[in-house]
TrEMBL record:
Substrate binds at residues 188, 202, 209, 269. It comes from the Bacteria. The gene is fcl. NADP(+) binds at residues 11-17, 106-109, 141, 164-167, 180. PANTHER family: GDP-L-FUCOSE SYNTHASE. This is GDP-L-fucose synthase. The keyword Membrane does not apply. The lineage of its organism: Bacteria, Pseudomonadati, Bacteroidota, Flavobacteriia, Flavobacteriales.
Length: 315
């Protein structure tokens, strides 16, 4: 890949997009292109057509999506299904039509069946039914994987899908209703620590999750950019997981909260476990490098420095 290739990072202000932007800038890429959703609504087919016609990017990285935690996914199924289909269909189709040579699609580990064997291999896709709290989002992501696979198969283009596990890091969403668990815990423990107030968390604490630091994901995207990967679908994770209760205890320690933890069993647990098998990308030469504790410390530091200027996504 040439350092002055025109690379459009869709969703460049998000947690993932901004990490990719930082990584590619640090690696010497000089021709990065980004548009906010106000400047370019990717759900609007005509607007996306005009954008591709005038900008003609050579590479597209799709980090734009309607994203949220378990409750947001469960409460807004239509937005999570339809907005993601619209955004990715426009990006993939116009990339194909305007001869974008490389396309990197980002999905999610929730594409795999709820009760698939663990750790999850890429080949388990579409072998059983999905987790109901996020099947709408998962179906959109599966359609994105398949669209890229179809282009790859029919036109032999380098369109590839990366499936990240649960991510965290700077520029995450810290809204307590719509966020994922890790930023929610950082904020809840931090806000409760002054008076040692109790912290209320969702579900039973027994589900297991794997967490990848977003700068490691950006490193994997850079790896996929620089190397032509031979297949269409690759998991991106650390290969290790822990229970939500263990995560809570870890974040409680890092934030120095000393109060009680209360589990709200009226909130959903979601899928019991979704540990990624990361051998396929490892065999190509990529592995994650940031230990969970270090990544959480960095994220908490970023949260403290952002002085309540952190992002809170409303739907
Ligand atoms: N967060 C996680 O744990 C995981 C995320 N992923 C995937 O990574 C990708 C990025 O997620 P993440 O960075 O966390 O999400 P964020 O919510 O932080 O960022 C999403 C970005 O998408 C852009 N966007 C949303 N809707 C539109 C639209 N209609 N038109 C144009 N831009 C739009 C937003 O742009 P703007 O800011 O300008 O409004 C925003 O910057 C997604 O594909 C997600 O599925 C995968 C696995 C886990
Ligand atoms: C990335 C991934 O993210 C989503 O899936 P999820 O992993 O289930 O999401 P989550 O991070 O919101 O929750 C993980 C676990 O943690 C528990 N939990 C405890 N306390 C809080 C809490 O305070 N907030 C949240 N959000 N969860 C909490 C919560 O009950 C659950 O058991 C998908 O929608 C899907 O779209 C997707 O791709």
């Amino acid at each position: 890949m040439k350092k002055d290739s025109k690379i459009y990072i869709a969703g460049h202000r998000g947690m993932v997009g901004s990490a990719i932007w930082r990584k590619l800038s640090a690696e010497g890429y000089t021709n990065l292109l980004g548009k906010t959703s106000k400047e370019l609504d990717l759900r609007n087919q005509q607007a996306v057509n005009t954008f591709f016609e005038s900008e003609k990017p050579e590479v597209v990285i799709d980090a734009a999506a309607r994203v949220g935690g378990i409750l947001a996914n469960n409460d807004y199924p239509y937005q999570f299904l339809m907005e993601n289909l619209q955004i990715q269909n426009n990006l993939i189709d116009f990339s194909h039509k305007f001869d974008v040579e490389k396309f990197i699609f980002l999905g999610s580990s929730c594409i795999y069946p709820k009760h698939a064997p663990q750790p999850l291999k890429e080949e388990y896709l579409l072998t059983d039914s999905l987790e109901p709290t996020n099947e709408w989002y998962a179906i959109a992501k599966i359609a994105g994987v398949k669209a890229c696979e179809a282009i790859r198969k029919q036109f032999e283009k380098d369109y590839v899908s990366l499936m990240p596990t649960n991510l965290y890091g700077s520029h995450d969403n810290f809204d307590l209703q719509t966020s994922h668990v890790l930023p929610a815990m950082i904020r809840k423990f931090h806000e409760a620590k002054e008076n040692s107030e109790p912290v209320e968390l969702w579900g039973s604490g027994s589900p297991m999750r794997e967490f990848l630091f977003v700068d490691d994901l950006a490193d994997a995207v850079w790896f996929a950019l620089e190397n032509e990967l031979p297949e269409n679908l690759y998991n991106v994770g650390t290969g290790t997981d822990l229970t939500i209760r263990e995560l809570a205890e870890l974040i409680q320690k890092i934030t120095a909260h000393t109060g009680e933890i209360i589990w709200d069993n009226t909130k959903p647990d979601g899928t019991p476990r979704k540990l990624m098998n990361v051998d396929k990308l490892k065999n190509e030469g990529w592995t994650a490098s940031t230990p969970l504790k270090e990544g959480i410390r960095k994220t908490y530091q970023w949260f403290l420095e952002s002085k309540n200027g952190y992002k809170q996504v409303k739907i």
